[in-house]
Amino acid sequence: MVTPHVVLVSGSLRSGSTSDRIAQWCADRCTERSATARVFTGGELDFPFYRPGLSDSHGAIREFLGELDRADGVVLISPTYHGTLSGLLKNALDYTNDLGEPRPFLDGRTIGCVAVGAGTQGAVSTLGTLRDIAHALRGWPTPLGVVVPHAGVLAPGDEVAEQHHREKLTEMVCQVLSSTLVRAGELPESVGAGT
Ligand SMILES: Cc1cc2nc3c(=O)[nH]c(=O)nc-3n(C[C@H](O)[C@H](O)[C@H](O)COP(=O)(O)O)c2cc1C
Predict the structure, then answer these.
(1) Between 37 and which of 27, 45, 180, 185 could a Cys-Cys bridge form, CB atoms 3.0 to 4.6 Å apart?
(2) pTM of this prediction?
(3) Which mean pLDDT values do the consecutive 10-residue runs of the chain (195 residues) have?
C-alpha cells in the first residue's frame, strides 16, 4: 500500500495568514486519509531571491527542495497580490530549477492550486497563473482548482467556515491523493471524494 506524501506550500508572510491556515486545513484532510503531509508556511519560505548555486549552501532551501523531491503531490496556496501569486511563493518555486534528474522541477507530481483574495476577480487570475506554473514545472494540475475570497472563510480554531469552501478544498485534496494512487496502481475506497 502506497502512502502518498503531500507538500503544502503557502505564499504569505502575513501574521494569521488565511493561506497558511488553509494549507494546514488541507494537510489535515491529507493525513486523515492516511497520507503524510508537510506544510511550509510563508514564514518558512523567506528565502533570498533565486540565484543558481545558492540552494546547496542554504539549509532551509535544501529542506524545502528535499521535501518537494520526495513529494507525490503538492498543494500551492497563494494570496492574490495585484492579480497574481505572491513574489514569495514564486521565488520559492524558482528554486525547483535546482531539482535535477531523475525528476526535475515538479515532474510527474499532481498539483492542487488554491488562490486566496479579497475578492474573486483577482483570485481567479491568480489561480490560472498557479496552474500555468504547475504545467511549466512539468506537474499535473488537478481538474479542480479553488478560489477563496478570504473574508469570513476561516472561523476561530482554523476551521474553514463555509461548507462550499470545505467541499471544494476537500475535493481538490482527494484529486491530489487519488491521482497519486492511480499512478501507483492503487485506489482504495478511503480516498474517494467527500467531505
Ligand atoms: C500587496 C497586496 C496586493 C493585493 N492585491 C489583491 C488583488 O489584486 N486582488 C484581491 O482580491 N486581493 C488582493 N489583496 C488582498 C489579499 O489577496 C487578501 O487579503 C488575502 O486574503 C491575503 O492572504 P493571506 O491572508 O494569506 O495573507 C492584496 C493584498 C496585498 C497585501
Answers:
(1) 27
(2) 0.93
(3) 93 94 96 97 98 96 98 98 98 97 95 96 97 98 93 58 87 96 70 53
Ligand 1 pocket, 118 CB below 6 A? yes
Does residue 119 line the site of ligand 1, with CB under 6 A? yes
Whether 145 is in the pocket of ligand 1, judged by its Cβ within 6 Å, is no
108 Ramachandran zone, left/alpha/beta (phi>0; psi -120 to 50): left
Q: How is domain 5-191 classified at the CATH fold level?
A: Rossmann fold (3.40.50)
Q: Is residue 129 lining ligand 1, measured as CB closer than 6 Å?
A: no
| Distance from Cα 184 to the centre of ligand 1, integer Å | 38
- Inter-residue contact 41 to 17 (CB < 8 Å): yes
Q: Which residue type sits at 102? A: P
CA dist., res. 126 & res. 103, Å (int)? 26
What does the domain layout of the chain look like in residue ranges?
5-191
